[in-house]
Write a structure and sequence with these properties.
- The chain is of the alpha/beta class and 251 residues long.
- Helix content is 45%, strand content 21%.
- The longest helix is centred in the N-terminal third of the chain and has 22 residues.
- It is elongated and about 60 Å long.
């Protein structure tokens, strides 16, 4: 009888574990680089809590944008509103599915140990850019926004003439770290992990715009329920603490 009860217990346990395994799934995510550091740390916490697995591919905003436009297979797109808004209008993301989880602002960096120009006001920032021999910014959300800032300051053409763009797949920080650009501007979350630079401050408040980062469902998703569990986790206190640590502001 004792052996019979043990066998029954083992059978029930195996069935329970099998049910959990059957419910667990892989969530395929495409993300832009500004949220990369936060998502890398959030992912294992979500996986541990949910039993699901995350398969996240990161890339620059324009590259990920074109992948989504081409109908790449996946469950979620994570990126700034600069890219999700046009994709939603084109029907490449599920309407009404976007959930914001973070805001991100741009900061200014110079090579470690280099003189730190005054960038505290729009006038000072403009003077620092004009005085620099070379400037770097990306083709992503912060770069698109910065171009509008430069136009507002009336120096778009002057700065474009001395622009040093990051290499394919590269962020702005390394361009500044190796001395190819005297000043670099990108989102704080992308500058923080880079060695060899000094972050001298955010864009002046009058010029700053907080870029909204959110998760949107891809039309071809096969794991919508699990994907929505991950989106909900991105708004949790546990995720918020990581988002803040990585240079973004949790929603």
């Amino acid at each position: 009888m004792a052996l019979s009860r043990v066998l029954v217990a083992v059978s029930v346990l195996s069935m329970a574990l099998g049910a959990v395994a059957a419910q667990a799934t892989e969530i395929v995510v495409l993300g832009t680089t500004a949220a990369k550091e936060a998502l890398i740390e959030i992912a294992p916490q979500f996986e541990h809590a949910s039993g699901h697995k995350l398969n996240i591919t990161f890339g620059s905003g324009p590259i990920v944008l074109e992948k989504v436009r081409a109908g790449v297979a996946g469950d979620l797109f994570i990126g700034p509103d600069e890219f999700s808004d046009p994709l939603l209008k084109e029907g490449k993301l599920v309407a009404g599915s976007r959930v914001d989880f973070a805001h991100s602002g741009a900061s200014i960096a110079v090579r470690a140990g280099a003189p730190r120009p005054d960038v505290g006001t729009p006038e000072a920032f403009k003077a620092a850019l004009l005085a620099a021999k070379s400037v770097s910014y990306s083709s992503g959300a912060s770069g698109l926004f910065l171009v509008r800032v430069l136009e507002r300051l009336g120096i778009a053409n002057e700065i474009k003439a001395k622009l040093v763009s990051p290499r394919p797949g590269e962020v702005v920080g390394p361009v500044v770290a190796r001395g190819d650009a005297e000043i670099g501007i990108q989102q704080l979350s992308e500058l923080l992990p880079v060695a060899g630079i000094d972050i001298i401050g955010p864009l002046p408040a009058e010029l700053q715009r907080k870029i909204a980062y959110g998760a949107s469902v891809l039309p071809a998703t096969t794991q919508r329920q699990a994907a929505q569990e991950f989106v909900k986790f991105l708004r949790s206190p546990e995720a918020a603490a990581i988002i803040k640590k990585k240079g973004m502001e949790p929603v």
